[in-house]
Amino acid sequence: MDTRERSDHATMVRAVLPKARMWTLSEPEDGSWAIQHSKLITVDDSVSFVTSANFSSAAAHRSLECGVHSSDPNVARALRTHLELLRQNGILVDYDAH
Asked: What is the pTM assigned to this prediction?
């Protein structure tokens, strides 16, 4: 989740998916800032969705985006594991802490 530019959308997603674990990039110590443009969702280690699309009306109706949906549990587990490693190493932080 982008907590700086799109906190309104992050708040909306939190309201719809209250049990979801949501993470954002940690702010670098030197004050420079990067954004995580890709969006990634895994559900119960069974399905995953990786896309460039924002979860917004404009993205759904006016943008040409690309994404991959997978029903392969191995893919979902690998993505979750990768995200958890990013979190353990401080690259991702809990969204709700912002």
From this structure: 0.69
